[in-house]
Amino acid sequence: MAHSKTSHHTHLHSPEVNHLNRAFIWGISLNLSFVLIEFGSGIWLDSLALISDAGHNFSDVISLVLAMLAFKLAKVKPSARYTYGYKKSTVLVSLLNACILLVAVGIILAESIQKLSHPPVVEGGVIAWIAGVGIVINAFTAWVFRKDREKDLNVKGAYLHMAADTLVSVGVLISGVLIQYTGWYLLDPIIGMAIAVVILVSTAGLLHDSLRLSLDGVPAGLSPKEIGRILKETDRRITDVHHIHIWAISTTENALTAHIVIPDPEAFEEIKCRLKIVLKTHNIQHSTLEFELPDGACGPKCS
Predict the structure, then answer these.
(1) Which ranges of the chain have pLDDT less than 70?
(2) Rounded-to-integer distance, Cα 242 and Cα 286, Å
(3) Radius of gyration over alpha carbons of the chain, in Å?
(4) If DSSP codes are grouped into helix, strand and coil, which group holds residue 136?
């Protein structure tokens, strides 16, 4: 989901899903390796910036694993008990990822504030080298997700996290160089706090979108009023469209229910097919349409 005015809920087909699976495997493998290196170096050097960044990167690894699991669950076939399968798990995972990042922000801020009064002596040069490796890994992982970032909320979250991590690693590298040549050890906890702020900003949109979808809110880029206007203009025989409800089945599929008023009952099936095709072009894959006569029990003024 994006914050733009147009919808970005594109249904992911098998080749794209396989591509994303490979992207998640690459992202998980590279970032987990870097987390181990960065955390070990942070302990060895007593660098809060490195430890904080390693904790953030580890939360990203967990997020990538959960997102990959959500894609697997989304492909589970519907059953009598779960008529849409486990597609909603993609939304719940996105919300969980946002919550994980918020917890990481709290921990990093607490540690950074504690270190401000007694900043540790750290090796700036080594920190800079490790951060340089992080820039390469995070930038590559972000590039892997870049093409598909507007097709799915979890992919967008992964891309934003990796892009933010790249900027954070740049900040850590700069602080390492400055510490090496100036001895300003206070920069280490300050950079830790800056990392927390970056994470918080990059998480805000993801939390907003995933929370809205988990509450069955209208997906970003879709407007019931606008969809109603489009449906009404599809066929001149349609006199009214009301009781429109739009929600997300998953982070890639949307559903709609609506009441369509037509004076000619013989045209119901013909118009229904046309409307469903139009809805699919506006990224609504599952639609349930109830047709009514102008003098039917449920009129346009029903609330």
Answers:
(1) 1-19, 48-49, 56, 120-123, 149-151, 296-303
(2) 17
(3) 24
(4) helix
| Cβ–Cβ under 8 Å, residues 130 and 123 | no
Q: Please tell me what DSSP assigns to residue 122.
A: -
Would you kindly state where each structural domain of the chain is located, as residue ranges? 14-214, 224-292
3-state secondary structure of 222: coil
Q: Do 224-292 and 14-214 have the same topology in CATH?
A: no
For residues 1 and 8, what is the distance between their CA atoms, to the nearest angstrom? 6
What does the DSSP 8-state code read for residue 120? P
Contact 66, 97 (CB under 8 A): yes
The topology (CATH level 3) of 224-292 is Alpha-Beta Plaits (3.30.70)
**76-84 long-range contacts, CB within 8 A, separation 24+:** 84/249
129: left (phi over 0), alpha (psi -120 to 50) or beta: alpha
Q: Do 282 and 243 meet the contact criterion of CB atoms below 8 Å apart?
A: no
Q: In the chain, which ranges are continuous DSSP H helix?
A: 14-45, 48-74, 89-116, 124-146, 153-182, 187-214, 224-234, 268-281
pLDDT digits (tens, 9 = 90+) for 156-206: 777 877 877 787 778 778 878 888 888 787 877 787 788 778 778 877 877
3-state secondary structure 174-212: HHHHHHHHHCCCCHHHHHHHHHHHHHHHHHHHHHHHHHH
Amino acid at 51: I
Residue 79 DSSP SS3: coil
* pTM of the model as a whole: 0.68
The CATH number, out of the four listed (3.60.40.10, 1.20.1510.10, 1.10.540.10, 1.10.3720.10), of the domain defined by the range 14-214 = 1.20.1510.10
Alpha carbons 107 and 43: distance in angstroms, whole number: 16
What CA–CA distance (Å, rounded) separates 251 from 67?
11
Question: How many angstroms separate the CA atoms of 199 and 192, rounded?
Answer: 11
